Amino acid sequence: MSIIKAIIMGIVQGMTEFLPVSSSGHLVIFGKILRLELDTGIVFEVMLHIGTLIAIFCAYTKDVWSLIKAGFGILFDIPEAIKIRIQEGHWPKVEEGKQKDPYRRLIWLIVVASIPTALIAFTLKSYIEYLFSSLLGTGIALLITGCLLYIADKVVEGKTRLENMKYKNALVIGVVQGFATIPGISRSGSTIVTGLLTDLDRESAIRFSFLMSIPAVLGAGLLELKDIPSDMVGEVFSAPYLIGTAVAAIVGFICIKALIVVLKNQKLHWFSYYCWIVGLLAIITYWIV
Q: Would you write out the chain's pLDDT as a tens digit for each of its 289 residues?
């Protein structure tokens, strides 16, 4: 792979992964209309996922480190809790400080959201694979995404902070994220809009959308890792792969920050017009080609 192609793919990954325009939808459209060879290899796809994670980590450094520390805290508490259950016949009460730790609760919110995402993605796997060859289905999905983004600016901002979010609302957002595996449905757009509709304030909606994407991106990367031949692992350290990963991370970070500003200024409908145009283009192309 050339460095130029790696840079282009890194830019595309960083932009479409975080801006609410559906990266998978663009993959289908460009592949069909322009007849591009988009298969860049499983190793490079994993590297781009790593770039995506780096962008999220950089944009939400405090949240990510706090979640990691809270996660280890939960793991360290499990053996002690089991020991007390066996010896004394009851589960230990949660200490007051731990009970009020917002990041421990945020971990469980992300877990609750991730379960339906995984179940739906697995259940719809064959259908989603079919849609990756359908311009019509992708075009319709992009029109739906455009409508969701247009609605987002009309929703009265909620008053619920992420720390006070209810588990049932996390479950609903997780279900939506599962259906966002359909090409043309934007993951970030649909989950942010759902967060707003469940009374989250704008900052919390976008924050939860990106933090809950970490398990999804990690899961996708791990599934791809098992398919990497051992003789291709060395490619990870080649210049094009490292440069592509860095570009995806930098562009992704910029897009996350830009989307936060757009959402706060209620300008998300800008992306709705784009999705409608591209969606209609895909549908028209389906009927005339």
A: 678 878 887 888 888 888 888 877 776 776 666 554 445 556 677 777 788 889 999 999 999 999 999 888 888 777 776 777 677 666 666 554 455 678 888 999 999 999 999 899 888 877 877 777 778 888 899 999 999 998 887 877 778 888 889 999 999 999 999 988 888 888 888 999 999 998 898 889 989 999 998 888 787 767 666 666 565 555 656 787 888 889 989 999 999 999 888 888 888 888 999 999 989 988 888 888 6
**Half-sphere exposure (Cβ direction) of 23: Cα atoms closer than 13 Å:** 20
DSSP for 67-111, please give it: HHHHHHHHHHHHHHHHHHHHHHSSPPPPPHHHHT-HHHHHHHHHH
Give φ, ψ of 3 to 5 degrees. Answer: -65, -35
d(CA 276, CA 42) in angstroms, rounded, equals 31
Rounded to whole angstroms, the Cα distance separating 57 from 67 reads 11
Pick the closest to residue 25 from 163, 181, 156 (CA basis): 181
Collapsed DSSP state (helix, strand, coil) of residue 265: coil
Q: Which two tokens stand for residue 132?
A: 């990756």
For residue 169, give the nearest of 218, 105, 118 by alpha carbon: 105
What is the number of domains present in the chain? 1
Determine the Cα–Cα distance for residues 210 and 96; give it in Å rounded to an integer. 29
Torsion of CA 163, 116, 185, 16, to 10 degrees: 60
